[in-house]
Amino acid sequence: MNAKQKMRHILDTIADMFPDAECELVHSNPFELTIAVLLSAQCTDATVNKVTATLFQKYKSPQDYLSVPLEELEGDIKRIGLFRSKASHIQKLCRILVDKYHSEVPASHKQLTELPGVGRKTANVVMSVAFGVPAIAVDTHVERVSKRLGIAKPDDSVLKVEQTLMRRIPQEEWSDTHHRLIFFGRYHCKAQSPQCPLCPLLDVCKEGKKRMKPAPKSKNSKSNTKIANEG
């Protein structure tokens, strides 16, 4: 199959595997989503959800985050990796939201990426999930899967992977595909133990085919077999 057919095959397969894939960060509005995605950097969604279960009860608005000392906020999120820098980013972000955006999260990708602690990935998630704007956020799962399946090159940067996916996937499928690629990487094509023997995409996955090849027998093993047979 050609590159376009291969991409369609991948999209249809992960759609069948994870038809209901969606953002797993628990939130009730764009502001909570922004905070949750910021906290999720180098941290699992499951851990973030445990922390935000109480965090979002205590802090309802940007003003609430600004009303406590930084040390108190650090203590509230200390189970999260890099909690000190993230607490600082949250308060700086909230100050900008209060002063510049009437305490509302801006629905602009450019304005989002100008907020402390908000990079392209966070902005893409917020734009897609909170505001319904088609986007592809490249996290560690999306990057790994894209490279294993040969959609992107092994040495591509995160930005290059995003640009390649946007070019090869129909725009109306960007957001759904983003979530499905995450689920595929999180629950199937895992970093340490991908389920290659059961993978419906093994036929187009060079990485998977390499992993499935039996290890070549060493010369010593052949000699040992010969000795055993002669004995």
Automatic annotation (TrEMBL):
Residues 39-187 form the HhH-GPD domain. Binds 1 [4Fe-4S] cluster. [4Fe-4S] cluster binds at residues 189, 196, 199, 205. SUPFAM superfamilies: DNA-glycosylase. CDD domains: ENDO3c (cd00056). PROSITE patterns: ENDONUCLEASE_III_2 (PS01155). It catalyses: 2'-deoxyribonucleotide-(2'-deoxyribose 5'-phosphate)-2'-deoxyribonucleotide-DNA = a 3'-end 2'-deoxyribonucleotide-(2,3-dehydro-2,3-deoxyribose 5'-phosphate)-DNA + a 5'-end 5'-phospho-2'-deoxyribonucleoside-DNA + H(+). GO terms for molecular function: class I DNA-(apurinic or apyrimidinic site) endonuclease activity. It holds the Pfam family HHH. PANTHER family: A/G-SPECIFIC ADENINE GLYCOSYLASE/ENDONUCLEASE III (PTHR10359), ENDONUCLEASE III (PTHR10359:SF18). HAMAP family: Nth. This is Endonuclease III.
